[in-house]
Design goal:
Elements lengths: L2 H19 L15 H21 L14 H14 L5 H21 L2 H5 L1 E2 L2 E2 H8 L1 H18 L2
Length: 154
């Protein structure tokens, strides 16, 4: 498998896992101030959409048009805004929105030349930038979704 095929496969695995966990998360609320399943997927969808925008801009030579947070504090501010703006979103809507976005990201990646993914961007490659907003987010947030699914399954 090529590096691009491996990347696409990782995105598919993340999609499949979220879809398999979703039926077990029938009550997506979380105790206390923890993020619930809806919050997690709304957060992941924001960054997934950012990855799609990047994949759209790079072939046009416009990757510099993508806004990049200046530092960790700005990332936190973006995440807080996304959290605030999605409080009224339902769990089914957040799930549908993220899964639709992920399918679109997979199609975009399948259409991109592998050499474009290797192109340098800021301090790493285009692939690394897209992975940061997609597959690395899966690794970061799937454990919490698994936890919420197991709590709901009890």
């Amino acid at each position: 498998m090529s590096e691009k095929q491996d990347f696409v496969a990782a995105l598919r695995r993340g999609l499949e896992e979220v879809e398999s966990l979703a039926p077990s998360i029938d009550r997506p609320e979380a105790p206390g101030n923890d993020w619930n399943a809806r919050d997690i997927l709304a957060h992941m969808a924001f960054w997934e959409g950012r990855a799609q925008e990047f994949l759209r801009l790079v072939p046009e030579g416009r990757e510099g048009d993508l806004l990049n947070p200046a530092d960790a504090a700005e990332v936190d501010a973006w995440n807080e805004r996304v959290h605030r703006e999605n409080r009224s979103t339902s769990w089914p809507m957040a799930l549908r929105y993220w899964t639709d976005l992920r399918r679109k990201t997979i199609k975009q990646l399948e259409a991109v030349d592998e050499e474009l993914l290797a192109r340098p961007h800021l301090h790493h490659s285009v692939k690394a930038q897209v992975a940061e907003d997609t597959s690395e987010h899966d690794e970061q947030h799937l454990p919490r979704l698994r936890e919420l699914a197991s709590v709901a399954g009890r």
